[in-house]
Amino acid sequence: xxxxxxxxxxxxxxxxxxxxxxxxxxxxxxxxxxxxxxxxxxxxxxxxxxxxxxxxxxxxxxxxxxxxxxxxxxxxxxxxxxxxxxxxxxxxxxxxxxxxxxxxxxxxxxxxxxxxxxxxxxxxxxxxxxxxxxxxxxxxxxxxxxxxxxxxxxxxxxxxxxxxxxxxxxxxxxxxxxxxxxxxxxxxxxxxxxxxxxxxxxxxxxxxxxxxxxxxxxxxxxxxxxxxxxxxxxxxxxxxxxxxxxxxxxxxxxxxxxxxxxxxxxxxxxxxxxxxxxxxxxxxxxxxxxxxxxxxxxxxxxxxxxxxxxxxxxxxxxxxxxxxxxxxxxxxxxxxxxx
Length: 339
Prior knowledge:
Number of domains: 2
Mean pLDDT: 79
Radius of gyration: 24 Å
Distance between the termini: 68 Å
Structural class: mainly beta
Largest sheet: 8 strands, mixed
CATH architecture of the largest domain: Sandwich
Number of helices: 1
Oligomer: single chain
CATH topology of the largest domain: Immunoglobulin-like
Strand content: 35-45%
Low-confidence stretches: 243-259
CATH class of the largest domain: Mainly Beta
Shape: elongated
């Protein structure tokens, strides 16, 4: 990919074009989801080797420009010159999400700077909303070189000229949470709600969750299924309490967690005679096995399934059993029937 040294430049081959494409990929299913309807927009942030946002380093990508066959050539030419290295922080669905952008990026911002924040819930004062599905990817590229064996490739243009394509891949970054509560007395679903405490507040440009000035509380309702169990109708999107270890996609083992990295759950019952937030039926559910086991974690790109069972007298005594199972993104664990 070096330059031409012939004296007659007309004899030189045409220079290789260089473009970027932005795609979305579900690691759980090993399938591209760019055109699935799950991705509404893309946002690219370009950082130099000193981890600073470069000039003109923010590039919005509309939905119609997402895809492996939809190159963004102007991004390469305006961002860097041949041989330069850049780090790209790429996001999906932040253009019109219920995440709040603390401030739109400016030249010189650091990659570790806090970026996306949860927004307050409009229905419940003091609570925050579950975020929309957010996708994220980060990689380094060297202009004019192949840095990745599968994400960088050389293809032929329609006119036969070689073209170097850098693919920026977005993956789900949030954690998913499902809850199943067994042993509640018959009632209407609207009489109960879940309180999810110690939620991280958002992400920085590197995709790392952070707490900000304080951890957040989220309030969500459930539904009763055909068995009479109170369940999450669809998994809740949440900011993870921690990421998988860098060496593997497996979650960090619960024993490696500390209390500040775990999430705390409550099941509340509302009362028509009380104006406050209701009766806390479970207390702080932060560990499995009657509160003596491991902390409950939320993992980036994975699903945490929590089963809460009232036992030995049920709700009246407030005795519960808690079981947790972590599954791939979007995979809801089917708990065995309680006999």
